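Aggregate trends can hide what the representation actually does to any particular protein. The sequence in question and its structure tokens are set out directly beneath this paragraph.
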Amino acid sequence: MTSIDIETQRTALVAETSLLADLYRTEDPTTPIPTCPDWTLANLVAHVGGGHRWAAAMITDRATEFLEFAKVPNVRRPRDAEEADRWLRGSADIVVESVDATGPDVPVWTPFGDLRPAEWWVRRRLHESTAHRADALLALGRPVALAPELAADGLSELLGLIRMGSPRFQTPLDEGTTVSLHATDTGDDWSIRRSDDGIDWEPTASTGSVTVEAPAVELFLLLLRRIPADHPGLTVSGADKVLATWLERTAF
């Protein structure tokens, strides 16, 4: 199974955020984002940069419960474009710096059940960035250029969030159904099954009720509901209804 260590996650968080800032600097900020209805590119930037600063504030405060956004310093995107560019780029650095200052193992609130080590937020904010940079690229009609190993890690992270459980997710699999994913470029496999009221998965090849084969980026985008199940980059075999049910119940 492809995995990236924490230092790679930290570097990628800064890099992905900077790439989103590049798009904001060079493209029309009023560009609509179809995969995030009613949002523009400017809204997307506000969401990512504000979210980074919110996570950093919780880490710094050693928060054990939800922190209101209004209480986070400098959480709003500046109106001036150049200031907003610097604000977004700096927000990723603040996440990393807050972990170092607080300690990577200090327990902090998350939206997914139990408190998690502060360092958990680096990976979470990384893939918030990868997902929303993909939103921007799709809106602009550009290919989603994302390193395969980063896409594979994003897919594993997303499955981990679903496994943790959250009121935002329904149980994505009915009894007796399974989903198998195979990344044709990295060679990674995810064999997903129902477990009580949630899911569990293993990094092994199998034939599921539905099996999807594609490069890691396309699999990641599919599970994020950014591309449809009939996208030409995907090879789907088995029970289409199982995949449709999964996608319907895992809106994120």
